[in-house]
Amino acid sequence: MSDAPTPAHHDRFSGLPAWLRPRARELPGSGRLRLIETTLLALLGLLLAIATVNDVARQTHINHRLIADLATWRAYTGHRYHNLSIEQELFGPASQHEVVCGNTSPGAPKARTQLCLVVYGSLSGGRRTVHGGWYLPPKVEDVRADRYGCFGVASRGMCPR
Amino acid sequence: MSVATQGERGVARIRSESWRPALVSLLALLILAATTEIVLDGAAGRSPLIPKSPPIASWLRGIGERLGYRVFLIAILVFAGAYALMLLLTRGQRGAVISKRWAIVLIAALHAIVFAGPILISTDIFSYIAYARMGVEHGLNPYLHGPVAISRDPVFQYVGHDWRHVATAYGPLYTLFSYPFAPLGVTGALWGMKVVAQLASVGMLVLTWRCAEKRHLNPAWAILAVGANPLYVIYGLGGAHNDLLMLLLMMAAVSLTLAGRDAAAGAVVVGGALVKATVAALLPFMILSRRRLAPILGALGALALGALLAYLAFGVHGLDVVSALNRDAAFVSTDSFAAELAHLFGKPGVFPVDHDLLKAALVLIALHLMWRTWRGYDWVAASGWTLLAISVTSTWLLAWYILWPLPLAVVTRDRRLLLATLAVQALFIVHQTSPLFAPVQ
User: Which residues does chain A have within 8 Å of residue B439's beta carbon, measured at their own beta carbons?
Assistant: First the structure.
């Protein structure tokens, strides 16, 4: 299995103690090292598998919340638009407070005046509660300087004036 | 009695074996169908899985429907399932179920389908083109500026948002290699880089075949395990990633070592590292295993030449690969195992201390593997384990990073490496599946 051994090895490293000397090929041994390695690998694999499944369940839970947020925006505005954007970072991902933005009239994404809603609270009937929001002019990202008409909880410092 | 029983068992075994080629063919058809579905739907137009791109696959438009997460994930799961079953059914069969021609035809068909389609999943190829155009068309150093410096260039609109302010982290050899594509325009460069990815893939598979043959392993099975791998086909080839070029040089180094050309092998590893630094991980294991001066001299010679070229082309910034790697190592992707473990233990994400712990774990693993190599363990397998450990401990994990150990895994006798690599790939795919359970629309 190993590539061609070099004949000079033994001479060059013969001064080293036996346990330190290089080998061209592994000794068959008792297989204890292999067993330890394989056990550690299996345990690590199990941990990664549990972490992966946990993360899928966690993300699925988040997705259910986001689906409810989109439904909330559509119910609040009465528009059945599909190109809505969700901001999860504004209040921190752990806060479970989301900001959903969408056009106030038909058009390409962000091409019209946008209405952003601050949504949080428990899920009920596939929706959550709107606690406030603001408007954005067309073709801008959601930055504080461009917000206007803040209402609800957003009126406490989310708009520049 | 016993002779009759044995005879009956033999007939039963032959009968049970006779369906095997038919089933393997069916699995191959499933793999082809899944790939075709993704490519045709990807060519249909706007999709969150298809990066914004010049219309290179518009001739396929109208056949498929817009590619959504649901169809993509089902196709990937079918592909992965068929691939795993195919490997199991053909394992250890020296030409009984898979002929060389059969394996080559399947892999060639997968390459052709992906080549005909749009760029899949990743915007990286547009970063490659942007860095090339920065250097050639705009006279800017891509090691100093991000693509935002050429925001009026036609390629800029296609560069991923996360990378617009980021200077290149690719090796100077790759950056110089990409320069001739810049004058071809965005579409020309795109096709050029797709051709390079295909050729690199074919070259790497040929070398994998040779290495497997030299090590008395089934070469057809080896290239099937790499060339029909779902992450390799859809993410690696589909995105035309420069990782394929790195893998080509990696397998060239292994092949050269097997031919006893140690100096050239050392030089080629350094050449690979000047494309993408990760492949440098092979060098200590090669040196420890060969215990000759030749690979060290070859590596030093290539490093001196590469450094001179990098300095002449990009100044000192082209030599500072370490700071670029440190910058990228600080990124965190949601698909990384580090992020998954953080969530499992109730943390919101990966903290600086976690980066340090992961680096320490990686160093320990590498030291253990170096010791094993010194004591006779296969250096190719040790290199593969190290590449796998790099991807698992990385906080910035992308699908094509888990491809790195795959060609090495199929040319070693330690089957645990292949099993571990495929298990990590399977977990990556499973981690993508949440939109199947709750599609956000």
Answer: 63, 67
Q: Are B209 and B242 in contact, with CB atoms under 8 Å apart?
A: no
Predicted confidence (pLDDT) per residue in B289-322, tens digit:
988 899 999 999 999 999 999 999 999 888 887 7
Nearest to residue B392, comparing CAs of B432, B331, B336? B336
SS3 A111: coil
Q: Using beta carbons and an 8 Å cutoff, which residues of A are at the interface with B?
A: 1-4, 6, 9, 12-13, 22-27, 37-38, 41, 45, 47-56, 58-60, 63-64, 66-67, 70, 82, 93-94
Task: State how far residue B326 is from chain A, nearest Cα, in angstroms.
Answer: 25
**Got the DSSP string for B4-70?**
HHHHHHHHHHHHHHHHHHHHHHHHHHHHHHHHHHHHHHHHTS-BTTB----STTGGGTTTS----HH
Q: Which of B290, B196, B212 is nearest to B246 (CA)?
A: B196
- pLDDT band at residue B64 using 50, 70 and 90 as cut-offs: confident
Q: Using one digit for the tens of pLDDT, what is the confidence trace for B392-418?
A: 999 999 999 999 999 999 999 999 999
Neighbours of B29 (CB within 10 A): 12
CB spacing of A67 vs B258 below 8 angstroms: no
Find, in chain B, the residue whose alpha carbon is nearest to that of A81.
B441
Sequence-separated (6 or more) residues with CB below 8 Å from residue A17:
none
Tokens (6 digits) for B51: 């990066």
The answer to whether the CB atoms of B441 and A70 lie below 8 A apart is yes
Neighbours of A25 (CB within 10 A): 12
Q: Do B265 and B295 touch, CB atoms closer than 8 A?
A: yes
ipTM score for this prediction: 0.90
